[in-house]
Each structure stands twice: as C-alpha cells, then as structure tokens.
Write a structure and sequence with these properties.
- By secondary structure, the protein is α+β, with helices and mostly antiparallel strands.
- The chain has seven helices and 21 strands.
- The protein has a nine-stranded antiparallel β-sheet with strand order 12-13-14-15-21-20-19-18-17.
- Strand 18 and strand 19 form a beta hairpin.
- The N terminus and C terminus are likely disordered.
Length: 401
Amino acid sequence: MVTMALALLLCVLGGTARAAQLDAQTVEAWLSQLSQMLASRQPLNDPRETIDPARDGQALFSYDFGTVAAASQIAPQAERIAQVDIRTDALADCAGLRVGMTLDDALDGAQVSGGETQLCVLELWADGPGWRWAYIGEDGVYGVETVTYGGEAASLREYTLTYLIDGGLISGIRLRVCAATQAEAEAGLRTAQEIAGRQRGEVYASANGAEVFAEQDMQVMGAPVIGVAVEKLVARVGEPQQVQTLPGGRLLVYAGAVAELGLNEQTGEEVVLSVSATGEALEGPRGLRVGMSVQEAAALFACRQDVYASGGMLYVEGEAMGEPPCGELIREDGGAQLRYLCLRQSGQTGVLEIGVQAGLVAYWRLSGEERRAADGEGGALGAAQRALPGGGLSAPRAAPG
C-alpha cells in the first residue's frame, strides 16, 4: 500500500506549470516536494560509494525514475540537490512534463527555426535574467532548455531545466542547480539577447493581426482584375508595349509587368487570368509593390507567428495544410516565396505569390487558379522579366537600414 502511494506521488509530482512560465519559486517548491518524498524511499544504490570530494561531497542517489546528485549522504535535501536526471515517465518534472512526451510539449507552443547559429531563443524573461532556447542540429531540435535565477544577489542560484529530444520525443529531463553571481546571470542574458537579435534579423514574417488573403484582395491598382474583361484592365493600367500570342491565350506585356489572358468558356469573352510584376510601377493586393522589404510585404497579410527565412506556415484556415485559405513561406534557390491561397466563389483557388531575393520583393504574381505549369522563359513571369531594361529582374531598392 505504501509502495502504491509513493508510485502515485511520483506520477503526479510536478504540477501543471509550463516551461514558458518557469520561475525559481516553482523549481524550489518542486525540489522541496521531491526531497520530502525521497526521505521515505530507499535508493537503489549505496550513495556513500559515490561521494565525490571534488564536488562538494556530492553523492549520487539512484531511483527507478533516474538519479539525484546531492551533497548529502543519508537522503537528498532540497537545498543541497545539485542535479536531478529523469530517465523514465515515473516522475513529472517541475514544469509538469515527463519522459515520452513530445517535442511540442517541450516547446510549449514556441516556434523553432534554424538560422546562422545552433541555438534558437524561444523566450526572454521580461522581469529579470532568464530565457528559454532550443538546440538545433542537422536532424532538427535535440534539446530544449530553460534557464532562470532565484535568491538574492549575494546568494543567487541558477536553475537549468533541459529536455533531451530523440525522435521527436523527450528522452530525458535534467534539472541542474548551482550557485551563480549577478555578473554571470547578466552575461548569460546578454548572450541570449544577442542570439535573439540575430534571429529577429532572420524573421521574414512577424506575427500580426492582419486579415487573411481573400478574394476581395485580388486587386491590381485598387480594382479587381482577375476574371474581368481585358478592356477594363487596359483602361486602368494603359495600353501594353506589346502583345504576344500563346497557344492558350495572349500576353499583354508592359514595362515590368505582364497580364495573361484567356477565354471565359461560358461567355466567350477574353478575360484576365493572371497578372505578374517584376517592376515597381504596378501596385498589387493591399498596396503590394516590387522593392518592398519582405517584412513590409508579409505585414500586409495575416501571420499567426514569427516565420523565419528557413520557411514555414504563416497561417492555416483551411481544413488541412495547403488548402485555401492559407499562407506559407517557401524556400527557393537564392531566395524565398510568400504564397497565399484563397477560395473564390467560382470554386477556383486564388493565388498570390511573392518572390523574395536578398530580403526584398523581386516579383509578385496574382492568378485565379493554381499554376498549370512551371512559369519559366515562356510564361507570363518570364515575359515580365524580359520586358524590363536589360531583360532581367528589376533592381529593387536597398533594404531599409
């Protein structure tokens, strides 16, 4: 009966605190509970055989959940515990997590994106030294760590909670406790701030409250153009420099822009199928223009969380990822593409593609259906590129700052 009660206590110990809100008080309360529980448990080893004089006389206590290192010989006392290693799901940690839970549980909703460093800062404490970051390797995240401080300046303690990740699951949990100085805490915080600063420079799309891309946004120069008669487009943007005939329709070629035309099968009327721009003159949906910074362009449309240059989902409103309405950042050779989809009343998918090179919008393309084939030398975008002076992409403005 006592054994069952202790096992139950091991499973529930840890509470419901999440790593994102972890503070010294939570850790200390958990250590106190753990110490009280272990006082009535016999370790699986003889701790006296593991005493390390070089580490303040610490002894290693082995239990069914893992080990506890403490400067004690009889039972681990809370104030003398230096490290707790959890290797099974028998014990919940001070943030309420266990071995076997997922990487998403360890991240607690934070987004991880690789950059120039192998560390990604997930959160910085607003009320004192403390942070949370992820360790990134070739196979993705292999560790998530929270560092926080407690006590007065003269007796400061550093608490480090680390989740070891293997195959997308928490394979081990380690809580380390050690003495620290104010200078050490401030130096660690500066490191985290510097890494976070570099990450902000790699953010292509910042979380915002903008509306998702919708059919009413499919405008050029402030008016709907997709599916409208070609005469209405010409009346708004002017006569084209040239007209090219394709097997399936025609192209109206402007300086740095191209409109792709086709027939409305129901009315027989020639209508606009897509508009592509590589020059700065044409204004796209919500004021989008070539030459904008990627951050300016992304701010025009919904973004649920920060998305980095490595790519990711901007938002998902459809039934599944990749179904309209949705937005994503896709890596391309030498750049990236912001891609937004919406569902039109006709049942077709409206598409806005924004090409990014060197952090600036190099082109955008608005179309009334999914692209039928790769747009290369013979497509509308290729024609827009050739229409510019020199036959290539326009040289965007220099990035702000």
